Amino acid sequence: MRQPGWAALRQWGADATRLERLAGGVANDVWSVRVGGNLAVARLGTRSDADLAWETGLLRHLDRAGLTVPVPIPATDGRLFADGLMVMTYVEGRPPETPADWRRVAGTLRELHRLTRGWPQRPGWRSSADLLHADTGTKVDLRAMPAEGVARCRAAWARLAGRPTCVVHGDPNVGNVRVTADRVALIDWDESHVDVPDLDLVLPDNAAGLDDQAYDIAAQASAAWEAAVCWDDEYSIKRLAEVRPVPTR
Question: Where are the transmembrane segments (predicted)?
Answer without folding.
Answer: none
